[in-house]
Amino acid sequence: MKMRVLGCAGGIGGRERLTTCLMVDHDILLDAGTGVSSLSLDELLQIRHVFLTHSHLDHVAGLALLVDAAQIGKSGGITVHATQKVIDTLKKHLFNWVLWPDFAAIPNEQAPAMRWQAIEQDATLEVDGRLITPWPVNHTAGSSAYWVRTGSGGFLFTGDMGSTPALWERVAGEALLRQVIVDCSFVNAERALADMSLHFCPQTLVDDIRALPLHIEFLIYHLKPGQEDLIMRELAEEGSRPFRAIRCGDVFEY
Q1: Which residues, 6 or more positions from 106, have their beta carbon under 8 angstroms from its beta carbon?
Q2: DSSP string, 63-87
Q3: Which stretch of DSSP H or E encloses residue 114?
Q4: Closest-CA residue to 144 (of 126, 124, 116, 114)
Q5: Residues forming beta bridges with residue 116, ordered by sequence position
Q6: Vertex 122, ends 181 and 27: CA angle to 5°?
Q7: Cβ atoms within 10 A of the Cβ of 16, count?
Q8: pLDDT in tens, 76-111
Q9: Strand 21-24 relative to strand 28-30: parallel, antiparallel, unpaired?
Q10: Which residues touch 190 (CB under 8 Å, ≥6 apart)?
Q11: Domain ranges in the chain?
């Protein structure tokens, strides 16, 4: 299994220019921010599954254009997996014929360009040998992390989140877990804003993961533009474990 970082920024204008989107092999996306725009049309038409962590625009903006490309290319349709709360939000506020067409009805409801599939937390889905398990995290209503693996290893993608002790309790004993891709959006001086918006700053992230085994590598994403270097310095100062910021174009194999 291969994972490629298409987008990882916490906003526009900073060191990383594209927002959250991870591609697993050639056919699965985790979130669909503006990172989708780095794919060619041929690559877009190979996408069959999109797993959404939550409904915020920087994580779903590319979904609207992705399903449009799928319809134009007649690729056979894309299944969008998310909690029912996230699906309901996107149906009401995005795919509503006002901001964007309802691609679950285009070209028709029998063979649409996009299909919704509600997930249940803790229920594992197998997609051609890849196992994907959603777990709830402390962010907007219905938010999920995804534990993605094969028999040889895997990674946890938290999506955006604030303190969620139950998540770390779940993953602490996972022998196949090699890496955690986790949000750390704000500098310590903006902890109040981080807490209010349900994101991490270095202090709160280090406190939250303190009990996890040191062999698990923590990869940081969603750094706010202009604060990338300071956030990473503060993480280095806060904890005993190493942290690394992911970059667009990074590829990891499991």
Answers
A1: 71, 112, 113
A2: HHHHHHHHHHHT---EEEEE-HHHH
A3: strand 114-118
A4: 124
A5: 80
A6: 55
A7: 24
A8: 899 999 999 999 999 999 999 999 999 999 999 999
A9: antiparallel
A10: 201
A11: 2-253
Q: Provide the pLDDT for residue 238.
A: 87
| Model confidence, pTM | 0.97
Kind of pairing between the strands at 49-51 and 78-82: parallel
pLDDT of residue 76: 82
Please report, for residues 191, 207, 234, 235, the alpha-carbon distance to residue 211 in angstroms, rounded to integers and kept in the order given: 21, 9, 19, 16
pLDDT at 240 over 90: no
Q: Check residue 150 and give left, alpha or beta (phi > 0: left; psi -120 to 50: alpha).
A: beta
Q: If you write DSSP's letter for every residue of 151-190 in order, what string do you get?
A: TTEEEEE--S-S--HHHHHHHTT-TTEEEEEEE--S-GGG
CB 204 within 8 Å of CB 182:
no
CATH code of 2-253, in short, is 3.60.15.10
Contact status, residue 28 vs residue 47, Cβ threshold 8 Å = yes
Q: Are 130 and 146 in contact (CB under 8 A)?
A: no
pLDDT tens digits, one per residue of 189-209: 999 999 999 999 999 999 999
pLDDT class of 75 with cuts at 50, 70, 90: confident
User: What is the H or E stretch that residue 62 is in?
Assistant: helix 57-73
Whether omega for the bond prior to residue 134 falls within 30 degrees of 0, making it cis, is no
